[in-house]
Every structure is written in structure tokens, then in C-alpha cells.
Design brief:
This protein is α/β, with parallel strands linked by helices. Helix content is about 50%, strand content about 15%. It folds into two domains: about 180 residues, D-Maltodextrin-Binding Protein, domain 2, CATH 3.40.190; about 180 residues, 3-Layer(aba) Sandwich (D-Maltodextrin-Binding Protein, domain 2), CATH 3.40.190. The strands form four sheets. Strands 1, 2, 3, 6, 13, 14 and 15 form a seven-stranded mixed beta sheet that branches. Strands 8-11-7-12 form a four-stranded mixed beta sheet. The N and C termini lie far apart (about 100 Å). The N terminus is likely disordered.
């Protein structure tokens, strides 16, 4: 009897052990299946769409780099030039055809997209702030947070005729003296260019509080701004450099024909002067009170659509594009890099014209990227015209600009 009980016990133990192994076998098989499914999901290619407001030639260069990333990752990328206006983008952003990335757009347009909550915040591991020109990061920030990545920068600087001047004027006093002798003209009633003389003395558009622009703190009517307005009035009325009605094209033509030796403009005029055989060079704007004169700076920026369903892949592609497009964009569109490492390359340092614009941009102020900036341009331009024509005085101009900008902002908020 004891033998039979022993046999039964052994059989039960064997069955129990067998069932345990069977259970383990099923668990292992399930785990393997799950891992396989996860691997298959990871390998499922994502289809990303990139829109760009860069030129067709530049878009073609961006596409080459994007396809390199696609080949490395197994995803697909479609890069296309966006010829529509920003309102069209706002409508498309929530559709099935919306781009994952907008690559190459003037940074001061981002305020519209930020207001519409279309900008995804940049992940901390995508941008190393120490590698960028600080001003460029300010241009794509809201309340101290990054909502875009800077790609390139552009600004204006001082063109001078090398047949008439052996060196550029180093100070504002030198500029006035050289202008009296050799001629100086630029688009004086254009706030974009003239902002430099206002900011040089302490004026500003909106106060920057730690990366947040305050539209309630307008600096176009302070003491420094008034000094700038007086200088602008003197350019026309005291020194007779240019007529109050001067347009940008007329100032450009005067420099190209050798009638003037000094002219303020940007990289967009370089090729035309070269083609016309003008002997010229470019230098940063003359210093004011021993300090660099800040110009307005435009940043070409990129951002990820907050509604993109491919956020991880979009940021990975973005990072790859940012790291690998600076030189192609410089060569195809004269886009000045914002990465310090790129600015140190021979392609920049050995080009006296590009390096001059890059040097000026370092001291510049990004055009405000908040929607309230739309209320600034017309009042500023209208009052500058009154100033240079002698119909308004600097202190009146200062007050009127601020009052009219405030009125414009109030209208936006209705």
C-alpha cells in the first residue's frame, strides 16, 4: 500500500512539474511574440512632411540632407516649398496634409503661430544653447522657452566705396565726416534700417524681460530714442546727406553709380553691386559712444507643428537638418550661420563680406516676434517721414509713435 502511495505521489509531482514547464513555455513564447511585435512597430516607417519658405534652390539643398536622414532611419521625408501665405498655413496645420516641420521662415512671423498654439516646445536634448549666437535663441523664444530653432541670421551693415575710402568710418562722428565729404544715403524713413540709430542711444521697441517681450513697455519714446530721432533729422536737415523723400532704390542707385560712398543695406544687394563692377566692402555699423550699434536682425527659423503625430521623428529629423544644412544654405543662399562652430569655418571667416554681416548680427536685436509688432511698423514709418521732412520735432515724434502703437495694440485685442 505504501508503495502504491509513493508511486501516486511521484506521478503527481511529475505532472505538477510538467505543468510548470508548460506554463513557462507559454509565457516565454508570449514574451517573444510581444518583442517581435514591438520590433515590427519600431521598424514601421514614418512619413514626414517638411514645408519651407526658403528659395527653391535652398529647398533643394535641404531635401538632399533630409533624404540622407531618411535613408539612415528607414523613414520617408517629403520636402516642399510653401508658396502660400501664413493664413493658408494656419488652415492647413490641423488637416491631414499638415507638415510636421516648417523649416525656414522669418522668426518674426512665429508670433502668429504661437498665438494659434501651433508651436511645439523644443525638447531640452535637441538644442545646446552654448553652441548658438545668444541673440538667435532670443528670436525663437517666448516667456524664456524655446519654440523654434534658429537656422541662419541676416542684418544690414555699412557698404563703403573702396575707391573713395581706404577704411570704413569707425564711429558715428567719423560717419558724419565721411558722409559730408563723400556722400551717405540709405532708406532713412524705413524703420527697419533706422532702428539702429534709435537703439544706439537706448531706444527699444518692447522691453525684453528675461526672454519675454512686454508689449506694455514701449521704448520708442524714451530719452535715448529722442536722441536717435534728432540724429536722423540732422542727417537730412543739417548735413543734407539725403532728401526727406529718398527711397531705398534711389539710395542704392546713388551708391552703385559712385555718387555716394556710404550706404546701409543687407546681403541682398551684394551680388548686384558685384555684377555692376562696384568696388566696395562691407563693415559693421560705426560705434555709438564707444559701443557697437545694434541693428535689427532677422532669423530664419524652424519649428515642429504641435499637432504632428510624429513628434519624436520630427525632432530627430530637425536636429539632423540643423546640424547639416548651415554650409549648404550659406553656399546656395548666403545664409549666415547661427552656430558658433559654423561661424569659425573658413567659408565664413575668409569671406570679408559675409564675416562683416555676421559680426554686425552678433550685436543686433531680433525683430520682436510677438503679434503686437504689427502695430509698430506704420506709426514708426509715418512719423519718421514727418520727422525728416521737418514737419515734426523729435520729442513730438517720440510721443506720437508710442501713443499710436498703443492704440494699434488695443485694436488688435478687440
Amino acid at each position: 500500500m505504501k508503495g502504491i502511495k509513493k508511486i501516486i505521489s511521484l506521478v503527481c509531482i511529475a505532472v505538477l512539474i510538467g505543468s510548470l514547464f508548460v506554463g513557462c513555455g507559454k509565457k516565454s513564447e508570449t514574451s517573444t511574440t510581444n518583442q517581435t511585435n514591438q520590433t515590427q512597430e519600431t521598424k514601421t516607417p514614418k512619413n514626414l512632411i517638411v514645408w519651407s519658405h526658403l528659395t527653391d534652390k535652398e529647398v533643394a539643398e535641404v531635401d538632399k540632407v533630409a533624404q540622407e536622414w531618411a535613408k539612415k532611419t528607414g523613414n520617408t521625408v517629403k520636402v516642399q516649398a510653401d508658396k502660400g501665405d501664413f493664413q493658408a498655413y494656419l488652415q492647413a496645420a490641423n488637416s491631414s496634409k499638415a507638415p510636421d516641420i516648417m523649416f525656414g521662415i522669418a522668426h518674426d512671423n512665429l508670433g502668429t503661430f504661437q498665438k494659434a498654439q501651433l508651436l511645439a516646445e523644443v525638447p531640452s536634448d535637441v538644442v545646446d544653447r552654448s553652441k548658438y549666437v545668444p541673440m538667435a535663441l532670443d528670436a525663437v523664444s517666448y516667456d524664456g522657452k524655446l519654440f523654434g530653432i534658429p537656422l541662419a541670421m541676416e542684418t544690414y551693415a555699412l557698404f563703403y566705396n573702396t575707391d573713395k575710402l581706404s577704411a570704413p568710418p569707425a564711429t558715428m562722428e567719423d560717419l558724419i565726416a565721411a558722409g559730408q565729404k563723400n556722400g551717405f544715403q540709405y532708406d532713412i524713413n524705413n524703420f527697419y534700417f533706422t532702428y539702429a540709430f534709435i537703439a544706439a542711444n537706448g531706444g527699444y521697441v518692447f522691453k525684453n524681460n528675461g526672454g519675454a517681450l512686454d508689449p506694455n513697455d514701449i521704448g520708442l519714446g524714451n530719452e535715448g530714442a529722442i536722441k536717435g530721432y534728432q540724429m536722423l533729422a540732422d542727417f537730412v536737415q543739417k548735413y543734407k546727406f539725403m532728401p526727406a523723400t529718398l527711397k531705398g532704390d534711389d539710395a542704392k542707385a546713388a551708391f552703385q553709380k559712385g555718387k555716394t560712398a556710404l550706404y546701409i543695406s543687407g546681403p541682398w544687394d551684394v551680388q548686384g553691386f558685384k555684377d555692376a563692377g562696384v568696388k566696395f566692402a562691407v563693415a559693421p555699423l560705426p560705434k555709438t559712444n564707444g559701443q557697437p550699434t545694434p541693428s535689427f536682425v532677422g532669423i530664419q527659423a524652424a519649428f515642429v507643428n504641435a499637432n504632428s503625430k510624429n513628434q519624436a521623428e520630427a525632432w530627430d529629423l530637425m536636429k539632423y537638418l540643423v546640424e547639416n544644412t548651415p554650409m549648404p544654405l550659406l553656399k546656395s543662399g548666403n545664409r549666415i550661420p547661427v552656430l558658433n562652430s559654423e561661424l569659425e569655418k573658413d567659408e565664413v571667416k575668409n569671406d570679408s563680406i559675409i564675416s562683416a554681416f555676421a559680426e554686425q548680427a552678433k550685436y543686433g536685436t531680433p525683430m520682436p516676434n510677438i503679434p503686437e509688432m504689427a502695430a509698430v511698423w506704420k506709426p514708426a514709418g509715418d512719423n519718421l517721414t514727418l520727422l525728416t521732412s521737418g514737419k515734426s520735432k523729435p520729442d513730438a515724434v517720440a510721443k506720437n509713435i508710442v501713443d499710436q502703437v498703443k492704440q494699434g495694440i488695443a485694436q488688435q485685442q478687440k
